[in-house]
Amino acid sequence: MKAEQAASLLAKTPLFAGLDESELLGLGACAHRRSYRKGEYIFHQGDTGSAVFVLTEGRVKVIFASEDGDEMILATLQPPDVFGELALIDGGPRSASIQTLEPTTVLTVTRATLLDLMSRQPGVTDVVLRSLGRLVRRMIAQAGDLVFMDLHGRVAKLLLRLIEDSTDHPGDGLSLDLKMTQSDLAAMVGGSRQSVNQILHQFERRGYLRLEGHRLMVEDVDALRRRAGFPAS
Description:
45% of the residues lie in helices and 23% in strands. It has helices at residues 3-10, 21-30, 85-90, 111-120, 122-148, 151-165, 182-189, 193-205, 221-227; strands spanning 32-36, 41-43, 51-57, 60-65, 71-77, 82-83, 97-100, 104-110, 174-177, 209-212, 215-218.
């Protein structure tokens, strides 16, 4: 990939959007493009963290595994999200695994390149810290949900977040292409696939939504918001 193309993609991310054209071109010249098939791991939990990744095509899931092998999906990411920032700060091993949900393309920028940029552009350091702050806040909120919210509420909250990330508008409803299995949904809310399946069908019977294979038609957003503990819109 040419430096100009890479620079254009990097400029769309919150992490690099504030750089001037020359800095973006310099960073783009150092970036490497990589492509992955659906279901492929970009890196595994415990791997050495030596680069930051910028999503340019596709979607991925962030997976944390316990010592017993149980897995939880912490988040799903899509362009122009950035991941791998934690290793940028401490140079430690990866704290989670990244697996693609569909064919995916990323740009990689090495830790050494970014540390050099941060030393010359203090504004980049501020953006990196803000990004890490958002990550920590999201993890704290997720931990709080697991402790204080029942599974029905967690499923409703997850659906609302997925709706916010990606929706289209057929008629008066909201259509959500899950692009993941019910096992993935269960791993995102700390439940079993069977329990999440039962909750989705309960929501369907109550008129909150309608299931059409992997596509979910939301019929009553306010009801979902109330079940997730939010005030109705």
